[in-house]
Predict the structure of SET domain-containing protein.
Amino acid sequence: MVESLVVSLLWGSIFFSRTPLDGIPFRKPYLAAAPSSLLRLNLIYPPVLRFTASFGVVAACGEDEGNCGGRRGLAAVRDIMKGELILTVPKEALMTSESLRSKDQKLSAALCKYPKLSSSQVLAVSLLNEVNKGKVTRWYPYLKQLPRSYDILSSFGRLEIEALQMDDAIWTAERAVEKDKMDWREATALMGELNLKHQLSTFKAWLWASATISSRTMHIPWDSAGCLCPVGDLFNYAAPAEEPYHSENKACQNVSPLHDTSPGKVQNSGNSVEEPFDAHVQRLIDAGYEEEIAAYCFYARRNYRKGDQVLLSYGTYTNLELLEHYGFLLHENPNDKAFVPLEPDMYSLCSWPKDSLYIHQDGKPSFALLATVRLWATPVTHRRSVGHISHSGHQISGENEVTVLEWIVKNCRALLGNCSTSIEEDELLLNTVDKIQDHDTSIDFGDVSRACIIELSAFLEMNDRKQCSQVQMCRKTRSIHRWKLAVEWRLSYKRILCECISHCNERLEYLNLNELDQRNSDSI
Ligand SMILES: C[S@@+](CC[C@H](N)C(=O)[O-])C[C@H]1O[C@@H](n2cnc3c(N)ncnc32)[C@H](O)[C@@H]1O
C-alpha cells in the first residue's frame, strides 16, 4: 500500500531563478526543513486531508507578487519508484462545472438559459461565480492559493506580442486574445444574471479564469473543460521523455491541455506498474481519472530521489503551444518545431497535414516536409512516376535533393532575415535585461541594430519604477516577464532555423563531394 499522507508545505524562494524547472531538484535543505504536516496542506483545500501522497509540497514564491504563476511545485519526501501511485484525489475534491452547479441553484438555473456556451465558458463563469462568494464557499482555501495572474499568450499585450517577431506566432497570440474576448462577450449576459461583482465581470477577470482553466485543468471523461484538481495541479511539466524522438504521429498526442492523461495504466498488486512498459502506452499516462475508485490518480513516471522535483507530462507541446496554453517554455524542448512558409502549390501536392511539414528542434526537416519539397522540386510531368519514392522517404535524385536543400536553406534565411533582431542581438537583449534587473548599471550595448535599441528602450521604460504604485509595479513586472518569454521564444525558434541551415549545408556539402567523386571515377 502507498504509505499514508506524508506531506509538507513550504513557502520559500527556491525557484527564484531563470533556469527552467524541468529536471532541477528542489534544494534538499529546504525539504528537510519543511514541516511535515497535514495542517499545512489543509491550507490548500480541506478535503486533501483524505489524499494519499508520498511526496512533499514545496512552494517557492520568489517574486514580489504573492502567487506568481509557476513558481511552486511538488518534491519527493522519500525515494519514489517509477510507476508508484503518489497521489489520489477523490472525485468530491475535484472542482468541475458539474460539482459547482450541483451546489448552487442560482448558477444551475442561470446556466440552463445559456445552452450555447461552451464547456470552457461554463467552467469559467462557474469559477468566477465561486470567487464572487468570497470566504463563504468551501472552495475558498483552494481559490485563494491560485496564481493571481498568468503569462499565457492571451494575456500578452501589444509590445509582448510584437516581440514574438514571427508572423505565425503573432497570429497565434492575436487569435488567442480575440478568442478570449469573444468568449467573454458571449458570457457577459450570464455573468450579469449571476450578479457578479463588477471586477469579476471584466475582461481582465475573464482572462484570469480562462488562463486558470487553460493551465491547470486536467482531463476528465465527462466534461471537455476538464477539472481543477487541488494539489494535483501543483505538478510542474516535463516533456514526455520516452517519446520516440522523431515520432511524427501527431494523432495521439496533445489531446488536451493541461494534462493529456489517458487512463489505462496497468497495475500489479503492489502499487507499481508492471515493467517493461510499451513505450507508446507509457507516453502520456502518468495521471488520469480512474472510474473504479472515483479518484484522480498520479503515478511516478520515473524513479525519483528524496528531494527531487516530481514532474508530470501534460502532453507533447512545441514551445509556442506551451506558451499559448501554460505561459512558459522549455529551453531544451525535444518536441519544439519551426515552420517555414511553403509555396502555395505545395499543399495540393501532398496528403500530409499542414502541421506535419516542419523542422525538428535539432534542425532536421520532418519526413513530410522533405517528401513534399522533393515532389514539388520534380518537373510536373515526372511527379506521378516518382511519387512513391518521395512518399517512402527516399531522395528522388542527387539533383532534386540539392534543389530541395537549397530551397529549405533559402526559406530559413528569409525567415531569419525578416526578423528585426539577430540571434546575437536577442542574446544580448536578454543578458542586458537580466543585468538591469540585477541592478548592474554598467551596460555596454555594443554594436547593435536600431531595432534592438528601440526594443531595449521600450523595456527600460517598462522597467522604470519611479513613482509607481504597488499595483503598477506588479503590472510592470509581469509585462517584463512576458516580454522576456517572447524574446526567449523567438530566440529558440531562430536557433532551430539556424540548425536547419547548418544541417542542410552539411548535406549539400556531402552531396557535392559525392558528385565530385562520381565525376572523378567516371573520368578514370
Ligand atoms: C499545473 S500548474 C503547476 C503548478 C504551478 N507551478 C503553481 O505554482 O501553481 C502549471 C503552471 O506551472 C508552471 N510550470 C509548469 N511546468 C513548468 C516548467 N517546466 N517550467 C516553468 N514553468 C512551469 C507554468 O506557469 C504553468 O502554467
Q: What stands out?
A: The chain is about 45% helix and 10% strand. The chain has three domains: 9-94+229-316, 97-227, 336-524.
